[in-house]
Each structure stands twice: as structure tokens, then as C-alpha cells.
Hints:
The protein has nine helices and eight strands. By secondary structure, the chain is of the alpha/beta class. It has a single domain (5-261), classed as 3-Layer(aba) Sandwich (Rossmann fold). Strand 6 (229-236) and strand 7 form a beta hairpin. The N and C termini lie far apart (39 Å).
Amino acid sequence: MFFLDKFDAKSYDNSYDNSSKEKKVYDVFQTISPHYDKMNDIISSRMHRRWKADLIKQIATQKCLSVLDICCGTGDIALRLAQENPHATIHGLDFSENMLAAAEDRKTGLDLNNVLFHHGNAMALPFEDQSFQCVTISFGLRNVPDYEQVLREMHRILEPEGTLYCLDSSYPDSPLVKPFFKVYFKFIMPAFASLFTRHKEEYKWLNDSTEQFLTKNELAHLMKKIGFQEIALRSYFLGSAALHRGKKTTKKGDPPCTEKIL
Length: 262
Ligand SMILES: C[S@@+](CC[C@H](N)C(=O)[O-])C[C@H]1O[C@@H](n2cnc3c(N)ncnc32)[C@H](O)[C@@H]1O
């Protein structure tokens, strides 16, 4: 794991109020880290792999040489980016030591020297302004206590013309489909969790955080308010997940990466 010298100024404060969202999320991921990858495959029927592959493809097209993956968890995005972009330097950041330890384990044996994992808090990124060409967050934003604060931090650390990608789960827009997803998230997913792990309560959080999260349009508008431009989104599987993209500033002639421009 890689720690910056400046880290102490803005580091993760372990003294959170026990009832805070941040503390709850920290405890959830510290607990479920050994099952995280397996359960992701089970609860999404491996669809998360395709969504992440799409994100990785889009970043490769941008030819970003420096990428930060916030809330990197066990390193799914960061490690694949590092494998597919050997000339780029990839950084992953997470506040859960156990998730990061799993990421380091996966890195071992892959023979990668272009990926670094950092322990830190998405709410106060331990990086200089304008340090990265791309910043990604995958299934992370809905977990943080203040979405706007994290998006502002992502905007701050991006170079001019840098690109933000945010992949996250969402409720489908169609009122016909939405109830089926609610039942799945609320009852079936925690049932899978208790079948395969002993952590039904922790998996209930995945439903609660999706339920409380911004709609796709709300997120796009928040990005716009912060100053992102060329905001675009792509929906996956009936709208149960979405990839938002935004540019720090617009470069003329950039191809749109989406099916739907807001
Ligand atoms: C659902 S996992 C996503 C992991 C990975 N990005 C993926 O797509 O599989 C969410 C991750 O966000 C991390 N996280 C949540 N809040 C955070 C915060 N405030 N700062 C840093 N990491 C955070 C958790 O520890 C967890 O590893």
C-alpha cells in the first residue's frame, strides 16, 4: 500500500461518531471483504463485470495516462485498468483496510508495476489539485456521506479536460419494472447473502444505499452544478445501473461516449 507524505492533513479520521453513515459503511466493508467479489457475481448474475468492462473500455479510448479509482474496494477497476493500459499509472483509494488488503493480494502475482493502492477518504482526497487525467468511482458514490463533497473533490484533482466516470446502481426508471427490483434488492439479495455468508444485515445496506441514492437525472444535475460539462449517461439492464460521464472542461471535437446525452 502506498501512503503520501501529505496524507496526515486530510486522512481518514477513525474517530467517527458510531452512528454516522461513514462509520456504518466502514464497518460493512471491513466485515464483508472476504466475500465481496464472490457475492458481487452472485447478486448481479455477473453483470457487474460487463458494466465495469464498458467503463474500462471507455477509459482506454481516452488514453488517460493517470487514473484515480476512488472507493476502489478489492481493486476490480484499478487492476484491470493497469493490465490494459501498461503505460498509464493507476491509483486506487479506499478507506477500508480489509478491502485494500484484498486488492493488494490480487495485485500480487499479476506482475503489475503501474498500480498503487492508497488508504484514504473520498471526502478529502490526499492528492494535489489537477493531478489526474481520469477519475473513476464504481459502486462507491452511494456509500459516502456527502455525494456533492466527493464530486467536488473529484473535480478538484482532475486536470483541465480531465474526465470523471461514475458507475453505480440505481432503480429502474420504468414504474412497471421498479417494483420487481425493489423486491429483489430488499428481500432476495439479503436472502442470498444469508445463504452464502453470515452477513445478511450488511447486505441490507446495499439495498438501503441504493434506495437513498440520487436518481440518474439528479446525479447528472449535481455534476453540472459542480462544474462538469458534456454530462452524459449510459444505462444498463433496465436502468438498474448507470455510468455517468463528465468533463472538467470541454475539448472541441470529443466524441460522445453515450447513448443518451442529458
Ligand atoms: C461497493 S464497494 C465498491 C468497490 C469497487 N469500486 C467495485 O466496483 O467493486 C464500495 C467501496 O467504497 C469504499 N468506501 C465507502 N466510503 C468511502 C469513503 N468515504 N472513502 C473511501 N472509501 C470508501 C468501501 O470501503 C468499499 O470498498
